[in-house]
Amino acid sequence: MNRTILLLIILNSMIMIYVFNSVPYTWVLTILFSSILYGALSPLISARKIYFLAAEAPHISLLSIALGIILTNILPILNEFSWTILISLALIYGIGLAIKRGLDPDIVTSAAIAFSASCSVIAVSYVLSRYSVRYNLWSIMLGDPLLTTMEDLYILISISVIVLYVIIYIYRVNVYLGIDADYVKLHGVNTLFYDLALFTVIGIASIILLKLIGFVLEHVLLLLPSIMAMNITESSNQVFVISILLSVFISMTGLAISIHLNVAPAGSIGLIAFLFYTTSHILRVKRNG
């Protein structure tokens, strides 16, 4: 076993024992499964080099949540979560289709961010003035995983398990697609299936993560784990494992620090992630001379 992976397993075991004995188990499980979620998504995003989508996902998620609340009150044929997921997937599929048709990803992303950000302001303002919601929309901006209800926790665990399974299933082919998509197509692989699976897991996971880690930090935590892992190893399989282990350790450490210092967990997790990234980058520079 890789020494880095072994060290991270030991560190995770130690911090998990500490936090389980220090804070309510619901807080620990919320942080654990959310960190597994973004830790597993991060290498997939890096493998396909779709960093633009990580930047756009929080904007889409915020707009989808606001529109989901509005549609639930106007057309109560679906619940709020179902409307939110459908809207999020429709927007992400639209971006993916535009890029698939040959449009420049940077142009598509810029246009999508402008559209979703503007619509989000209108939709959120409308929701705040018209409807009573069971959670604070401002917590979505800043993130507060400690306010997670048992219902939210069950949804988080279920989606995390499903998304992790899908990511493991599609990861290797997506790595190959990121390296040489034409080579993969020549071997008769149905790339449309893997593209749809990729956009689907990002769309669903980003909704869950927005409610937990917040709009401000979501795109950062979707990118940093895999970048840190790539600073440590060049193996795609090891990048996947290290990304998840780093995410769990950083998140649990951030939770412990936030409790002791009485600061927002999302903020402490983000700062620790930044420190780990800086350290991994320095070590990579020294290793490569």
Structure description:
With 289 residues, this protein is mostly helical. It has a single domain (3-287), classed as ABC transporter involved in vitamin B12 uptake, BtuC, CATH 1.10.3470. It contains eleven helices and no strands. Helix 1 (3-20) runs parallel beside helix 10, helix 2 runs parallel beside helix 7 (150-179) and helix 7 (150-179) packs across helix 9. The longest helix is centred in the C-terminal third of the chain and has 42 residues, at 191-232. The radius of gyration is 19 Å and the shape is globular.
Itemize the secondary structure elements and their pairings:
Elements: H1 3-20, H2 25-48, H3 51-74, H4 80-100, H5 105-130, H6 137-142, H7 150-179, H8 181-186, H9 191-232, H10 236-261, H11 265-287
Helix pairs in contact: 1-10, 2-7, 2-9, 2-10, 3-4, 3-5, 3-9, 4-9, 7-9, 9-10, 9-11, 10-11
Keywords: Membrane, Transmembrane, Transmembrane helix
Main location: membrane
Protein name: Metal ABC transporter permease
Strand content: under 5%
Report the C-alpha radius of gyration, rounded. 19 Å
Would you identify the CATH architecture?
A: Orthogonal Bundle
CATH C-level? Mainly Alpha
Written as H for each helix and E for each strand, in order along the chain, the element string is HHHHHHHHHHH
Question: What profile does the largest beta sheet have?
Answer: none
In the CATH hierarchy, the third-tier topology is known as ABC transporter involved in vitamin B12 uptake, BtuC
Number of helices in the DSSP assignment: 11
Overall tally of structural domains? 1
Number of strands: 0
Can you give the helix content as a percent range?
over 70%
What is the CATH superfamily?
Answer: ABC transporter involved in vitamin B12 uptake, BtuC
Provide mean pLDDT, rounded. Answer: 86
As residue ranges, the low-confidence spans are none
Distance between the termini: 26 Å
